């Protein structure tokens, strides 16, 4: 049995691909909505965050033989917990990561390497700022940008209760909250930028499947500034292998499961 962390749409597709290949797996997601989509595809799923200790206990109790990490490219804590839990039990660890996109230089495309740097850059630019990086790091931007009379901070995030409560706690006004489930078309992005008079859009380099291209190019073509937070570097060392192809990771997982079966 494979234990798989699923945090993106392409991870969900990978889980389905692995099961079609006859590889039984248990998926793990953070939100109930993510579980619903996987279970609708016939994949057994658990819900909730796992720290390193909880993951080790779960892997031991379930008798899992491999860990496949399909969590979001920016989910560094999830990556670390999965790698460490697999290493603690001597299990093979496989990381699936969607390909990075290559962006040509553009005078209004500003590349940064942290949420804090993105917030500082937006503070310098002023105007109507649309934040599309989710709810997890909202406090970084709220602290830097709220209260500045020359900045209107608009946040676009998933319409879950946790996000809305966090916005309220941070003092983000209801009129500045766009609670919608993506993906968004180019036309939808353009309409939202016009509606909120956006001057600066902040996003993450999460890969093609993250719909970054649509909102980024729409913003640049409309004359907006785009602050792009680059994917964080993560050293996998000897703890695992990184794949960006369904076929390659499937072959690798099949091979290691066959080997462990023969050894058993």
TrEMBL record:
Q: Does the keyword Cytoplasm apply?
A: no
| Keywords, in A-Z order | Cobalamin biosynthesis, Oxidoreductase
Determine the domain of life of the protein's source.
Bacteria
Pathway listed for it? Cofactor biosynthesis; adenosylcobalamin biosynthesis
Gene Ontology molecular function, alphabetical? precorrin-6A reductase activity
- According to its UniProt record, this protein's enzyme class is oxidoreductase
EC numbers for this chain: 1.3.1.54
Q: Which InterPro entries match?
A: Precorrin-6x_reduct
Recorded hits in NCBIfam families, A to Z, give:
precor6x_red
**Protein name (database record):** Precorrin-6A reductase
What is the phylogenetic placement of the source species in the record?
Bacteria, Bacillati, Bacillota, Bacilli, Bacillales
Q: Which gene encodes it?
A: cobK
């Amino acid at each position: 049995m494979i234990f798989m962390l699923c945090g993106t749409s392409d991870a969900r597709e990978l889980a389905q691909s692995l099961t079609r290949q006859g590889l039984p797996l248990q998926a793990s997601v953070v939100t109930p909505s993510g579980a619903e989509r996987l279970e609708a595809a016939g994949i057994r799923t658990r819900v909730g965050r796992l720290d390193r200790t909880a993951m080790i206990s779960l892997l031991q109790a379930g008798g899992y033989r491999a860990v496949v990490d399909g969590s979001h490219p920016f989910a560094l804590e999830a990556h670390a917990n999965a790698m460490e839990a697999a290493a603690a039990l001597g299990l093979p660890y496989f990381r699936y990561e969607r390909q990075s996109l290559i962006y040509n230089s553009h005078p209004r495309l500003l590349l940064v390497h942290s949420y804090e740097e993105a917030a500082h850059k937006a503070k310098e630019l002023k105007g109507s700022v649309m934040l599309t990086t989710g709810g997890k790091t909202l406090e970084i931007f709220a602290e830097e940008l709220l209260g500045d009379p020359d900045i209107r901070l608009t946040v676009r995030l998933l319409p879950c209760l946790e996000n809305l409560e966090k916005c309220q706690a941070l003092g983000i006004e209801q009129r500045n909250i766009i609670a919608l489930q993506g993906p968004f078309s180019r036309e939808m992005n353009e309409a939202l930028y016009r509606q909120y008079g956006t001057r600066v859009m902040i996003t993450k380099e999460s890969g093609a499947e993250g719909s970054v291209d649509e909102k980024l190019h729409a913003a640049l073509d409309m004359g907006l500034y785009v602050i792009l937070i680059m994917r964080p570097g993560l050293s996998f060392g000897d703890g695992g292998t990184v794949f960006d192809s369904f076929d390659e990771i499937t072959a690798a997982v099949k091979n290691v499961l066959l080997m462990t079966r023969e050894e058993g």
